[in-house]
Specification:
2 domains, about 60% helix, alpha+beta, AfsR-DnrI-RedD_regulator, BTAD, Bacterial transcriptional activator domain-containing protein, Serine Threonine Protein Phosphatase 5, Tetratricopeptide repeat, WH-like_DNA-bd_sf
Length: about 250
């Protein structure tokens, strides 16, 4: 089970077509190969997750990240064992080459899809139903690894920015039911996120629901006062300033 044997197990053989694989990291970890679920042990799941989130990783760095509290030699041995085990049950998922570990060519990852959608948010996208599930889709919520916590916040921000941006775009297309659903989904995911409150208000205004916009602003103001002891930002207040008399805003 040395390095050479591990690399053969983890890499696809030349001339063999790689089956499609799908790794899910939002919520519980899940690996599917050719449409079938594959069970992995804890160490194996963590190696796969690390490569999915960080891209190609040097073996030494992967070992140090996953086993930070043990000696380098032991961490390297742990990594070799995990790679060997992944190669036994899912040989096309990871590739090991010249000291690096990377994903196989036919592997897709839900977090990578989320990132691409967030960066291409202005492109047409009718998969509104799948977006509404993102409120509760934290990155590997049951994992307490320090390195996961770093990626968890990055992914959380991507999710919320995507929900807000798509909600505003849908409102501009007069798809108001879907827009308000996504806006409220972002708000439910983080009730203290002021940009989510602004998105809800903006969607109501786009639809001409002035009373709803006023109620949303009042709810935002009360929450921020109670939880943070602050007033809504000028950007939030400006959304309704021309629609709601100053006296009403000051008493909201």
């Amino acid at each position: 089970m040395g390095d050479h044997g591990t690399e053969r197990a983890a890499q696809p053989r030349t001339g063999v077509q790689e089956p499609g694989a799908r790794v899910t990291l939002l919520g519980d970890f899940r690996l599917q190969v050719a449409g079938r679920s594959v069970e992995l042990g804890g160490s194996c799941r963590r190696v796969v997750a690390l490569v999915c989130l960080r891209g190609a990783v040097p073996r030494a760095r992967a070992a140090g990240t996953l086993w930070p509290s043990v000696a380098d030699q032991r961490a390297g041995a742990n990594l070799r064992t995990a790679l060997w085990r992944v190669g036994l049950v899912a040989p096309f998922v990871l590739r090991v080459d010249r000291g690096w570990v990377e994903l196989g060519l036919a592997v897709t990852v839900d977090v990578q899809d989320l990132t691409q959608r967030a960066l291409a948010v202005d492109e047409p996208d009718d998969e509104v139903t799948s977006l509404s599930r993102l409120a509760d889709a934290d990155l590997l919520p049951d994992w307490d690894d320090e390195w996961v916590a770093e990626d968890r916040e990055r992914v959380r921000q991507l999710r919320l920015h995507l929900l807000e941006a798509v909600a505003r775009r849908l409102a501009s297309e007069s798809r108001f039911a879907a827009a308000v659903n996504l806006a409220l989904t972002a708000l439910r995911a983080d009730p203290l996120r002021e940009s989510a409150h602004r998105t809800v208000i903006a969607v109501h205004l786009a639809e001409g629901n002035l009373a709803e916009a006023r109620r949303a602003f009042a709810a935002c103001r009360q929450l921020l006062r109670r939880e943070l002891g602050v007033e809504p930002s000028a950007a939030t207040a400006a959304l309704v300033a021309r629609l709601v008399p100053d006296r009403a805003l000051s008493s909201a």
